[in-house]
Amino acid sequence: MADRHDLSTLPRLLLRNAREFPRRAAMREKDRGIWQSWSWHDYHGQVRDFALGLAALGFTRGDRLSVIGDNRPRLYAAQLAAQCLGGVSVPVYQDSIARELAYIWSHADVSVIVAEDQEQVDKVIALRDELPHLRWVVYDDPRGMLAYKFDWLKSFADVQAAGRERAAKDAGLLEREIAQGKADDVAFVCYTSGTTGSPKGAMITHTNAIATARMAMASEDFRIDDDYLAYLPMAWVGDAFYTLVMSLYVGFTINCPESPETVQRDLRELGPTQLLAPPRIWENMLTGVLIRANDAGPLKRRVFEYFRRVAEQLEILRADGKPIPLGLRITYALGQFFVYGPVRDQIGLRRTRFALTGGAPLGPDTFRFFRAIGVNLKQVYGSTETTGLVSLQPSAEANPTTVGRPCEGVEVKIAERGEVLVRSAGIFRGYLKNEEATREVIDAEGWFHTGDAGFVDPRGHLVVIDRAKDVGAVADGTPFAPQFIENKLKFSPYIREAVAFGHERPFVTAMIAIDMNTVGTWAERRSLPYTSYMDLSQKPEVGGLLREEIAKINETLPEATKIRRFLLLTKDLEADDAEMTRTRKVRRRYVAEKYAPVIDAFYTKETEVELTSSVTYEDGRTATIKSRARIEDVETREPAHA
Question: What are the structural domains of the chain?
């Protein structure tokens, strides 16, 4: 039997929660417009039945189970069930193409795949012959599955029924299995983004997970009555840490939205008390707010802009530790009633005590906007290899230029060339089947080499500049950090993605992917017809719009790093085409090779260049599209304001 006081593994935390607060909500799921709840007692029962069902199917200690799909309670329960039996969870991105899935499932020797629905099962069927270790595929949603007749395919309900039969014969089996689990057993294999090649499987142990949870608790006000919305990809370490570590450690409730398309509506309805979102989500939220403000009548628009400037002025003073004049405080209080409160309510953050952004740097303008309207937004820094957490900003010290203080129990030092090194109990065990890569990032003294360039400021906050390999200098020696410039560009609601170039070049240039929705709305208001992304992006009027946006951004940049030339891409940057990772990070090396003719043309007098774009479909098929795009010059004079 498991020792009640031994909480060294995630399954033991589940037993604790089911025993000590059985009626508290552990999971909620929005289904057909109605929130349905599992208590901790229910959650334990779901995990128990599925774990014993897996045991009946021959799943044993050390086996690996993968889940694919949107955020669903049963997919989380399946991962925990595997861990109860001493197995390992291997979540994958639900929008991965066939080539990526085949690599991960084969590399991880996955023996069981739990798929959300028919769409995900079809992906497995297409790859079945490439997966020699795969024994069973289990589906959650039975819709559309009636005609599927494979002896290796089972429903989630059937596996649980087999588990209940097994329990009837041996009631103590699950607790005995949990008792055998050790703290240094691998709990997850989370595959990295793969910015520099094939993704690597980071092995995260129960010790890594629980030690990191303790660090988080010491740094932030997590509460048992918190509500968290689980909408981020399950394969991202940030989601795994919240839903399968912090929820179990603290006991708060995980809420799963009805679908990716309803996340914004479900967010407003739930009003979570805490939120984790990568920069892209905050940028999208801001874009939505700005679009609604621009679409409002003249009076409302002027009121919004006035109070927005007031809030940002107050936030800058507050961040700098300067006194806030009485008049500004009174005006800000009025803004709470007229603007800030309604905006927070509209985006679903009315109850949010704190919100975290991580995964990549967030532009300072976006950061200040949310802080200014009363959202306690703070930066958090971590990576898959650090179990998602290194540093976190205290609420009173939130600042767009740092990623906070190292958490309690985390050591940080800066190497000679400026690389950030980290040592803690949260550092992963190593990369699956890749000892050489493990030795490259973990040195003999246990320091993990993050690959990020940064420094520690006088207050003890960690400042991350960019990926160490991406930091360079323009031809005159001025430091050049492309991510900093790209974040500035993405503050514009008309820009979805940007890639900046300038290392060892005479000036800075940028490739830009427009935001189709925002630019499309702008074009429609001006009766500007278009047929596709390609057609819209190459309209002279759109080029003029983006030229003005870049000119405004240039006003905030040092002279040597102002953007002098740009090109509007004829398609968005896509993870399926290997231009981005699944967490929306630019794969710079690949992009630089793919768009080499564009980069060369930037630094000649050419005004047009041919683009060859490859489009990758889910089944791995590719198509090639050729187009021509204009290279635009940015004037250095004051931009004309529309």
Answer: 10-221+232-258 (3.40.50.12780), 277-350+352-467 (3.40.50.12780), 472-633 (3.30.300.30)
